[in-house]
Amino acid sequence: MAAKDKPNKLAFLSMPAPASYVAGLGRGASGFTTRSDIGPAREGPSAEVIAEAQARRGEEPEIDPDQFQDPDNEFGLFAGTTYEADDEEADRIYEQVDKNMDARRRARREARENEELAKHRAERPKIQQQFADLKRGLAVVTDEEWENIPEVGNLTRKKRKRDERSFVVSDSVIVGDRARTEYETSLDSRQQATGGFETPAENGTITNFAEMSQARDKILSLKLDQVSGTATSTGLQTAIDPKGYLTSLDSVVLKTDAEIGDIKRARMLFDSLVKSNPKHAPGWIAAARLEEHAGRMVAARKMIKQGCEQCPKNEDVWLEAARLHNNDDAKVILANAVQHVGQSVKIWLAAADLEHDVKAKKRVLRKALEHIPNSVRLWKETVNLESSAVDARILLSRAVEVIPQSVELWLALARLETPDKAKAVLNKARKAVPTSHEIWIAAGRLLEQEAYATEKSPEQRDKELAAVDKTIEAGVRELRRHQVLLTREQWLKEAERCENEGAIRTCEAIIKATIAMDVEEEDRLDTWTSDAEAAEAKGNIGAARAILAYALRVFPDKKSLWRKAADLEKAHGTRESLNAILERAVHHCPQAEVLWLMWAKEKWLAGDVPAAREVLERAFVANSESEQIWLAAVKLEAENGELDVARELLVRARTVADTERIWMKSAVFERQQGQLDTALETLSTAIKKYPKFAKLYMIQGQIHQQRRDFAAARASYAAGIKAVPKDVNLWILASRLEEADGKSIKARALLDKARLANPGNDVLWAEAVGVEERSGGAAQAKTVLARGLQECPTSGLLWSMAIWAEPRPTRKARSADALRKAGSDPWVLCSVARLFWQERKIEKARHWFERAVSANENPSDTWGDIWAWWLKFERQHGTPEQQEEVIKKAVAAEPRYGPTWQPIAKDIANSRKSTREILELVASALH
Predict the structure, then answer these.
(1) Distance between CA 850 and CA 844 in Å, rounded?
(2) Is the pLDDT of residue 143 over 70?
């Protein structure tokens, strides 16, 4: 009964499991779900159903940004189309619209962002802001308080294990420490036996320190001999250079472990290479050079020996073997090489180089010619060893028989023969090698050499020189017939080479025969002009002269060509050649005024005044109304003291030519002669004729100012400013008149009006700065200069003034700014040169002066003040030759402008002075 009432503990096994029961969940197991647990699969709502539901709820459907993408192009459907000009314009318009839209909201957006940032900083300040007050409090901490701050201890709260190991001290340490402070007060038995000396001096012998020094020197000598590799059997001689010993030690390469490892790996590679392909000669050579680089010469020689055995037909292996051995062994090696590669020219030449005796060299080379009779190089080397021209001629005769196609050997034989025989040789060469242009050129040079060889009449010489032209022309025709077509550039190079070697007429003949090749008819003038300029730039004046001469024959009426030819003769020719060119030029171009003036000037500079007058008379016939020719004639007569003739010429010029410049020159002439009333009358008449010519008002005002009639001068300048308000010089002269009259305020006002009428003019700003400086207002001058630089930021004149307005320590920085803004302006370059001059950097200063005077393309546009500064510099630091060179360049450039140059050059007292004298005066006036 009791057993029946007892509950069954395992009854739960037959019970159904709870709904959420998962077996083993209490032990960490996890359940899983199968398809049978969730029922059959069913399809979800379609896209249309979802869109309807969203429309009922008022939601907008989400648009996939990539739904319109091209499946073959992930970056855009139109990415592969051509980007055209209208696309670019559209993009530019959209960008401008975006910028304008952004600019409209920028202020509000930035204010909102700043407000949000301030609010964020207030809520969440930075760490450094949180501790800012504490940092400020550190300023009052004293040194004593700072020292009392405790050190940071162990904050890990972990106990550190102490190292409590102990070591036993050695007995020797204890004994040694005990005896370290003791004193020995007794002698041992050995010391007592020898009288206190531990090393007794037996038999009275004393140590010879001189012998010890000699022994040391001998040991050092032996070591040096071992280093140099030249030690003798006795060791007393050495071939080391004492001065170069340290240098030789520096050259010793100590290989690192990495390099040694690389050598070992390379050795393994090359070893594998020569074993796998023993007939590959470069592998043996590389392996031998590796051993040589590693310093193992014996291994290198052994390696290359195996290479010679494996590749006996390769000349490079034999040459490498000869290089790795000494001279005697190399001879044996090359002798063996000849047995295998007897047709190798390199082997024979290397064998000849090993011989130090000329006879032995000849013997080797002649043996080589027996094996290789068709080698041009061997024949040339053999001929070069001959000291006798007869023997060389015999060898070359034999050489051209063996190798008739060698142009070099034919030309060498022709050079050794007499002129008559040389012609025969060249004829044979031409028949043997009809495609060689060098033979025809050599024939032309031979004819030219004959023409100048002996004293001959001019007619005979011209006849022989004409044969040069015919020979070259025939050569060009023959070469074309044999289909040998050299380009113009190749012929021009041959012509330049002939000129460099002294054959000028041959050069001219080549150009005459070939310059028109491969040139279109409409491009001839430009092409030939550029060819002449290129030849002149290379220094080939003869070639340039020949090109221009041919061009002038084709275009005899081109004034620019005659001008280039005249300039070429003026720079590189003689006075006679220049006169000849100019005479031909005016004959072909009688209307070219510049050519007549150049010819007349050259005659005048040569001291032949009557010839200059004759040239100008002929120019009058061809150009009766030419202003320049009339003024040149007046200047010629005035410079030679014929004042009445000059005055009469001016009267006739005013009647015939009647130009504003002739009227101005007439007034200037009368002013220079002191006839001020006549000059004023002339100016009054001229102003009525030419009221817009500013220089007439300037001269009139200067004459009144010279007479101290400031009111009349002021009226003249005012009339000129009213008639020609854009002329800057009139404004400046009017301003300086007011300064001379003591009215600086009025001068300032005039310059302000001038800047309004002529905005952006740096000369007016520079004059305004000068007015302030002359009136004593340095600060105001700086202010005006700064305003001027704002309006004219690239003005070299203003930047130069700004450099010198700075204190000396800051001038270099100011000059750097000037070079960035106006680096090619001559005034800036001159200022930099003067700064180097102040720092005593002479060569740099001279170089910058050269850059300053060559900054302008037209030499006459260079500033006379810059030439004067350069001359002043050379007067202080240059040699007389350098000073004379500067003066010559300045006279050739003929400068006309400059703040200091123009007042001195236009002064009545200096009217008859030359450019050289004006340059000296300006250099003296500069400070």
Answers:
(1) 10
(2) yes
pLDDT digits (tens, 9 = 90+) for 515-534: 888 888 888 888 888 888 88
- Cα(493)–Cα(514) distance, integer angstroms: 11
pLDDT of residue 237: 43
Q: What percent of the chain has pLDDT over 90?
A: 5
- Whole-angstrom CA distances from 631 to 418, 597, 661, 663 are 61, 10, 9, 11
Q: Enumerate residues 6+ apart whose C-beta is below 8 A from 190.
A: 198
Coil/strand/helix, residue 639 = helix
Query: How far is the C-alpha of 360 from the C-alpha of 345, rounded, in Å?
Result: 17
Could you identify the residue written with the tokens 């300086």? 736
* 332/328 Cα distance (integer angstroms): 7
Q: What are the φ/ψ torsions at residue 70 (nearest 5 degrees)?
A: -75, 125
**Block residue for tokens 């010793």:** 252
HSE-up (13 A, CA, CB side) for residue 370: 7
- Inter-residue contact 762 to 792 (CB < 8 Å): yes
DSSP string, 517-539: TT--GGGHHHHHHHHHHHHHHHT
Backbone angles phi, psi at 108, to 5 degrees: -65, -40
Provide the β-strand partners of residue 863: 897
Ramachandran angles phi, psi of 515, nearest 5°: -70, -25
Cα dist from 439 to 403, 406, 420, 433, whole Å: 16, 11, 16, 8
Render the burial of 61-83: b for 16+ CB within 10 Å, e for the rest.
eeeeeeeeeeeeeeeeeeeeeee
Pairwise CA distance, residues 709 & 721, whole Å: 18
Q: Are 408 and 425 in contact (CB under 8 A)?
A: no
pLDDT of residue 205: 47
In one letter, which amino acid is 746? K
Instruction: Work out the mean pLDDT of the chain and round it to a whole number.
Output: 79
Q: With contact defined as beta carbons under 8 Å apart, do 297 and 324 qualify?
A: yes
The answer to whether the beta carbons of residues 853 and 866 sit under 8 Å apart is: yes
- Find where tokens 């139109």 sit: 78
The CA distance from 562 to 594, in Å, is 10
Q: Tell me if the pTM is above 0.85.
A: no
At 297, list the tokens: 């010469």
Beta bridge partners, 73, equal 70
Q: How far is 654 from 658, CA to CA, in rounded Å? A: 4
> pLDDT (tens digit, 9 = 90+) per residue, 847-861?
999 988 888 766 556
Q: Where are the alpha helices (DSSP H) in 690-841?
A: 694-706, 710-723, 728-740, 744-757, 762-774, 778-791, 796-805, 811-822, 826-838
Count of CA atoms in the C-beta half-sphere (13 A) of 868: 25
Q: Helix, strand, coil shares of the chain as percentages rounded to 5?
A: 70, 0, 30
Mean pLDDT throughout 823-829?
Answer: 87
Structure-model confidence comparison of residues 460 and 543, the more confident one: 543
* Calpha distance 241→250 (Å, rounded): 14
Give the integer Cα–Cα distance in Å for 729 and 698. 8
| pLDDT digit string, tens, across residues 681-692 | 888 888 988 889
CA distance 254 to 295: 11
Judged against a pLDDT cut of 50, whether residue 137 lies above it is answered with yes
**pLDDT beyond 60 at 635:** yes
Within a 10 A sphere around the Cβ of 661, how many other Cβ atoms?
16
Q: What is the DSSP letter of 60?
A: P
Paired with 897 in beta bridges are 863
> In this model, does residue 253 exceed pLDDT 60?
no
Give the sign of the dihedral formed by CA 78, CA 82, CA 85, CA 88: positive
Q: Cβ-count burial of 662 within 10 angstroms (0-12 exposed, 13-18 middle, 19+ buried)?
A: buried
List the single range of 58-67, 740-749, 885-894, 902-911 with lowest mean pLDDT: 58-67
Helix (H, G, I), strand (E, B) or coil at 73: strand
Residue listed under structure tokens 């690192």:
256
Q: Of 148-162, 484-498, 713-727, where does mean pLDDT reach its minimum?
A: 148-162
